[in-house]
Specification:
Porin; eight-stranded antiparallel beta barrel; 2 domains; globular; 4 helices; alpha+beta; single chain
């Protein structure tokens, strides 16, 4: 079931990218339009940015690539590889994350100037799936050492929800990235939410965690 969900999300993401750039010249033949759509579909797979993130239920440190789309790039899809070091458990682990972000607003911080270096995205919401690879304390099927149905959910797959903010700095003469962004997120996951419902003694800091990150916009 988990493989089906991840495969379905990946397929929807790829086909949504291929459906972009719908502005086609009416003077082109049907064949030329089909070839143009094919080429632009593959060109859209080139990442628009890269990211680095600390914490956030994705490992101690994660790095990835992503794509922005929709009006004013309000939507983003990220792919991350993360690292969970051995001191967080019995052994180190690699993590993979598929993340969808929505950023409805962007505010220019110095609107009186013709060229604004700084912009603020005051609200972001993210939904993402995180998979932890390896054995040890993270597993898909409950080990035999536990009583039957002792754990309801697998410990190596988490569904996460996060809210945050970003501040962006546009580079006037870029050599590496057009825009550099700093962001923070406060998030939780399905397991923490279930624990919060079952155990009213838990505090907010037991359920939610803080993560920090950098984004480097190329395109």
């Amino acid at each position: 079931m988990r493989k089906y969900i991840i495969g379905m999300l990946s397929s929807i993401f790829i086909f949504s990218l291929a459906a972009q750039n719908a502005n086609e010249s009416p003077s082109l033949s049907r064949y030329e339009r089909r070839v143009l759509k094919y080429k632009t579909g593959w060109a859209n797979l080139i990442p628009d940015y890269s990211k680095m993130q600390f914490a956030g239920g994705m490992g101690m440190i994660s790095a990835g690539i992503g794509w922005g789309y929709g009006k004013n790039d309000k939507w983003e899809t990220d792919l991350f590889l993360g690292f969970l070091p051995w001191f967080s458990g019995d052994e180190s682990h690699v993590t993979f994350t598929l993340k969808e972000n929505f950023l409805p607003w962007k505010i220019r911080l110095n609107p009186e100037k013709s060229y604004s270096h700084w912009t603020l995205e005051p609200f972001s919401v993210s939904l993402y799936i995180n998979k932890i690879f390896g054995d040890g304390e993270f597993w898909t099927k409950q080990p035999d050492k536990y009583p039957d149905k002792y754990y309801v959910l697998a410990t190596n797959l988490r569904f996460n929800l996060a809210f945050g903010q970003r501040i962006n700095f546009a580079v006037k003469n870029p050599h590496f990235a057009n825009t550099v962004s700093f962001f923070y997120e406060v998030g939780t996951n399905d397991l923490y939410l279930i624990c919060a419902i079952q155990n009213r003694v838990l505090k907010l800091h037991d359920i939610f965690s803080l993560s920090l990150g950098l984004k480097f916009q190329f395109l």
